[in-house]
């Protein structure tokens, strides 16, 4: 779990990324920046900063920040009850993000998994997203993503988001937001 | 219908608005900017410029430009077959937009309908959206919106979008994209 100082630094840095991307947030949104360390307590390698604009039964939209070389770990969005799993489009707004999905393995990928977590990364089809570029993931597709050297700001457009149903390859992961 | 010159000017101006809002588009997206004049041939008063990022069966996301005092005319999104109508969240990114929805009439609203079309505007509950502010419209809610004096850039996060099912209060309107 993050301590207060780590959380506050991540929030401050994330706000700076949003500002550089000219993304305007309300004061309320700024006060609700979510910092996820996925229970691994290693946010420099594995973590995600985000603000959720809207999350209804049908539609969700978020704005996310990855710091340089920070990784959102491999997971998928399974069917929930009779509803298909989450469908999501990632659109890079600033910086660069490498997205890895199930499929043909990319030779010489740009990224390496977080040190010590290598065995939990199995999807190796690489998609490079630069500002203005996007990719749509359909339900239940294994995926993970890592920012380039300058970090990244990424918009997500999706169906309803319910983190508790996500299935991570790394069974040590607990997806609980850190808001201290 | 717009002539080529009007269409090209609207696209050029819309691209300038996106650039000022630091919204990065691919060359392909720039070449597919949609200019809607709603068949009224009066784009200065009634029109909308937009780019659609994604529109699947479940999720849609668009980026829209309204020029100063330009109006997107009153309409609603009805149920389609067994599916509820379109749900949409408008988020102001730059400038100012006044959104009018069904409900208690706002005294002294900031906007007037396009001249000559007054009778087709019946929703008068005003919501002012400045950068970072947003509003969610649930299905079948009558609504229209008009930019302030400096125009507006607005993100839309929604369920599937199918313009042909929209019901406009103004029965002269034909919602066909103008891409000349």
Automatic annotation (TrEMBL), chains A, B:
<dbReference type="InterPro" id="IPR010864">
    <property type="entry name" value="D-lyxose_isomer"/>
</dbReference>
<dbReference type="InterPro" id="IPR011051">
    <property type="entry name" value="RmlC_Cupin_sf"/>
</dbReference>
<keyword id="KW-0119">Carbohydrate metabolism</keyword>
<dbReference type="Pfam" id="PF07385">
    <property type="entry name" value="Lyx_isomer"/>
</dbReference>
<keyword id="KW-0479">Metal-binding</keyword>
<keyword id="KW-0413">Isomerase</keyword>
<keyword id="KW-0464">Manganese</keyword>
<protein>
    <recommendedName>
        <fullName>D-lyxose ketol-isomerase</fullName>
        <ecNumber>5.3.1.15</ecNumber>
    </recommendedName>
</protein>
<dbReference type="GO" id="GO:0046872">
    <property type="term" value="F:metal ion binding"/>
</dbReference>
<dbReference type="GO" id="GO:0047828">
    <property type="term" value="F:D-lyxose ketol-isomerase activity"/>
</dbReference>
<comment type="similarity">
    <text>Belongs to the D-lyxose ketol-isomerase family.</text>
</comment>
<dbReference type="InterPro" id="IPR014710">
    <property type="entry name" value="RmlC-like_jellyroll"/>
</dbReference>
